[in-house]
Amino acid sequence: MKIFNKAIIIATTVGAVLSTSATAEVTEASSEKHAKAATQYRQAVFQLVRSNMGPLGGMAKGALPFDESVMQTNAVRLEQLADMMGDYLAVDTRKFDVETGAKDEIWENFSDVEKKVMALKTAAQGLQAAVEAGDESAYRGAIGKIGASCKSCHDDYKKD
Fold first, then answer.
1. Contact by Cβ (8 Å): 140, 84
2. What is the model's pTM?
3. 29 Cβ contact list (under 8 Å, min separation 6)
4. Of the candidates 107, 150, 143, 144, which has an alpha carbon nearest to the alpha carbon of residue 127?
5. What is the pLDDT of residues 30-66, one digit of tens each?
6. Strand partners, 27
7. Mean pLDDT in the chain?
8. Around 136, how many Cα atoms within 13 Å sit in the side-chain half-sphere?
């Protein structure tokens, strides 16, 4: 029975890893309505990222005291938002007249975008680990890694 349970656990773990490591495929928006909706959803995800990064940035700069509860909650949210980003970024809206801050390169170099999104996810997990360990000396650096992952993508794929 123990061997059977171990096999179930291994199969479940492998399935979870494969499902979270699947890459999104770039697809063209099928209509102007689709392009506008995709852009709206993409921007909504980034608004949520910004709302979760704000307090973290304030803590990293010393403008706000470290609050482990806020750091943990916001890091979990950022990890979840990173999981969604690939889906929302994968819709190529260039054929339609939509207001977007995305450079064309985002769809031309999508595998790089996915790496940057994964860096955000990993950085968010790093902050969670620092908070769980109670390692106050690591908080600022862990938040900095999240910010650096955001900046990396903005530098390459966001219009000024």
1. no
2. 0.83
3. 35, 38, 91, 92, 93, 95, 96
4. 143
5. 999 999 999 999 999 999 999 999 999 999 999 999 9
6. 91
7. 89
8. 5
